[in-house]
Design goal:
This protein is an alpha+beta fold. The protein folds into three domains: 87 residues, Arc Repressor Mutant, subunit A; 105 residues, D-Maltodextrin-Binding Protein, domain 2, CATH 3.40.190.10; 97 residues, D-Maltodextrin-Binding Protein, domain 2, CATH 3.40.190.290. The protein contains nine helices and 15 strands. The longest helix is centred in the first third of the chain and has 26 residues. The radius of gyration is 23 Å and the shape is elongated.
Amino acid sequence: MKEMGAAADDLVLLVEVVEAGGFSAASARCGIPKSRLSRRIARLEQQLGMPLIKRDSRHFEVTDVGRQLLEHGARIRESASSALTVAQDSLGQPTGDLRVACPVALATALLARFAAGFVQRYPLVRLSVVTTTGRVESLADRYDIVVHPTSVPLADTSMVARPMLMSRFVLVSAPGAVEPVDDPRALSQRNVIGWDYMGASDRWRLTHEDGRSVDVAVSPRLSSDNLLVLREAALAGCGVTPMATLMCSADVAAGRLQIVAPGWAPPPAQLYAVYGSRRTLSVAGRAFIEEFEGFLREVYGVV
C-alpha cells in the first residue's frame, strides 16, 4: 500500500516535470530540489523497468509509455487538489496554495499591486504569480487561475472564462516622433513599432469610433508581443505603436506620449479570469477573482 502511494506521488511529479519541460524548471515551479525530482522519476522508471523520459544535456523527450502515464498522473493530481479544496473550504476562509498565471505586462500594470494587498489580507494563502506568454488552453491545466486578454472568443468550452475588464487601445507615440494624422493610412509612411499580438505586426486593423474600419500596411523596425517593450520603445521616440489605455493613460496625461490617430483604435481585448471547469475553485480562488474584479472596478471604473 505504501509503495502504491509513493508511485502515485511519483506520477504526479512526472506530470510536473513534463509540463515544465525539464527538471530545473519543475524544481523552480514546485519547490522540490532538482536532485530529488530526478531520483523520484528514476525510481519510477526502475519500478516499471523502462524509461519514461529520455534526457541528456541537450535533449528532453518523453517516451510513449511516459506519455500514457501522464494522463493518469494528471488525474491523480486533480483528485488530490479537489480533496484539498474540500478540506480548505471547511475552514470557511481563504487558505492554502493558489497559483495564478498572467502575461508579464498585465502582471506589472494590473496584478502586482492587487496581489500584494491580497496576501496581506489573507495570511494563510500562499499565492504564486507566474508571468507567461503561453497559450491559455495549456496554462489552465497547470494553474488555478489564468488571467488572459483576448480580442477573439475563447474556443475551449472545457474552461470557465469570467469577464473581468474590457481593455481598450489607442495609437501612441512620443511627442515630436510622429505627427498626428486624421487618416490612419498615412501611418504606412511613418515609423511604427509592431505588436505581434495583433496577429500580423505589419498590418493593423483599425476601427473608428463611428464604425468605419481600415487595414493599414506598416513596416515596423521593432516589434514585440510584450506591451512593456512597446511602451518603452514609444517613450524612446521609436515611432507609433498600439497601446492599452490602462498602460498609457498616465503617460498621455503627463505629456510623455501623444495619441496619434484620434478616434481610431485596434480592436479592444476582453480580460478574463480562466479556470478549468473540472477544477473546483477553492475559497482562496473565489476570493481572488471576486476581489480582483472589485479592484479593477475601483481603479478603472468599468468592468
